[in-house]
Specification:
- This protein is an all-beta fold.
- The protein contains one helix and 24 strands.
- The chain has one helix spanning about 260-265, and strands spanning about 5, 15-20, 25-30, 35-40, 45-50, 55-60, 65-70, 75-80, 85-90, 100-105, 110-115, 125-130, 135-145, 145-150, 155-160, 165-170, 185, 195-200, 205-210, 215-220, 225-230, 235-240, 250-255, 270-275.
- The longest helix is centred in the C-terminal third of the chain and has 6 residues, at about 260-265.
- It comes from Leclercia pneumoniae.
- This is SMP-30/gluconolactonase/LRE family protein.
- Belongs to the SMP-30/CGR1 family.
Length: about 290
Amino acid sequence: MAELQRLFNYTGHLPECPTWSEEEQALYWADILEGEIHRYHPVNGEHSVLAFHEEVGCFALRERGGFIVAMRNAIWLTDKNGTLQRKVCDNPSNPQLARFNDGGTDPLGRFYAGTFWAPGDYNGAMLMRIDNDLTPRVIQCDIQGHNGVAFSPDSKWMYTSDTPNAVIYRTPLDEQAEPGQREVFCQFVEGEGIPDGAATDVEGCYWSAMYDGWRIARFSPMGEQLEEYKLPVRCPTMVCFGGADMKTLFITTTRENMSAEEVKQYPLSGAIFTLPVNVAGVKKSLFIER
């Protein structure tokens, strides 16, 4: 049995969007509610933090250096120090009610970012994409809280989840990687947890952080649960693969909306964990601008 370990002595508020830099051999992640992007280098233990003026829902590393960052009100290009350089687009939702949340890049280096509808009274969130020429496009609507974007290793499928509605979708992609009609991949019932952030491996399996479920689950390309890994905290938020061989699973977790009593009982809530696994993950593309 693989041994779960804490990455280092860090506990965040709402860590999300773990992203492995192959070039730097370092892990990046966002703390959404603190408006931060963190970097940690496992070899030398160096930890640095970039602060932003509002929540950082998700980001990606750019081929040209720096980041593309989806914050509450807008998506921006920044330099490596987090300095805002260019606004790509405004949040097409009502930013007071729907901040940006989960996101990442597709195999062509385009940036996907979804929103989370805070009132929860209907499916008011959406998924958008920033193309390589910086054109913004709304890709999907009818979502309450977007999460879980990941792509199959053959680039034929895009996976997403709607966390409050406890469903994982898959969407076929054509030869130009344009999405077709989404379909239900997995639906969950009370007690199983709800699907949050995710990643895919080279065998085409989908790894989901099961928020409120105390676990990480691995699903086959047909939607069958193949494995699960128990956690010492209730709410994992996202996973990514990294390490020199891409066989380390990094797991972010949260303490958002937890009582002081629960945090005291489960003090590792908000920590980042590592888990060695037997299969390599699909590498994330850098965001490519043309």
